[in-house]
């Protein structure tokens, strides 16, 4: 089989897989607003460390502000409790992100890793459609 055709088929399969994974992580707030949790998106984009992902979210927030969108409507600060190995619990950040926020995060991802750059580009395209409108801000849990 032609290498170019095989590469194209693999990219198409990866894009389809990424699209399915992205959509599978979508949640719907009781107000009907579609959102994704930041820690889910972190792993989907291949970020191992939360602090690295927070840097990308910060860039995405700046891009959101620059496009005259209300950042608080697209990056909703919420926390959740997680169980620690000791059996105790700890509160961690896990912002709710709209489709637009996911798109901006994917666009502002770390492009130094060329192996995953195609995935980020694909996710940016996936997250951009359908065109995001400013939703009503979901209430934090």
Describe what this molecule looks like in 3D:
26% of the residues are buried. The longest helix has 22 residues, at 3-24. This protein has one domain (21-128). The model is unreliable at 131-138 (pLDDT under 50). The chain has helices at 3-24, 38-44, 50-66, 71-74, 99-107, 114-128, and strands at 27-28, 34-37, 75-76, 79-83, 89-93, 96-97. The strands form 2 sheets. The protein has a 4-stranded antiparallel sheet with strand order 1-2-6-3. A two-stranded antiparallel ribbon has the order 4-5. Helix content is 52%, strand content 14%.
Put the structure in a nutshell.
The chain has 141 residues and is of the alpha+beta class. The chain is built from six helices and six strands; from the N terminus they run αββαααββββαα.
For the structure shown, list the relevant keywords.
two-stranded antiparallel ribbon; 52% helix; four-stranded antiparallel beta sheet; alpha+beta; 6 strands; 6 helices; 14% strand; 141 residues
Write the layout of secondary structure elements.
Layout: H1 3-24, E1 27-28, E2 34-37, H2 38-44, H3 50-66, H4 71-74, E3 75-76, E4 79-83, E5 89-93, E6 96-97, H5 99-107, H6 114-128
Helix pairs in contact: 1-6, 3-5, 5-6
Question: What is the C-alpha radius of gyration, as a whole number of Å?
Answer: 16 Å
Which structural class should the secondary elements be placed in?
alpha+beta
Regions with little confidence, pLDDT below 50 for 5+ residues:
131-138
Query: Roughly what is the average pLDDT, rounded to an integer?
Result: 80
Distance between the termini: 52 Å
Give the strand tally.
6
Beta-strand fraction estimate: 5-15%
Instruction: Give the CA-based shape.
Output: globular
What proportion of the residues is helical, as a percent range? Answer: 40-55%
Provide the succession of SSEs: HEEHHHEEEEHH
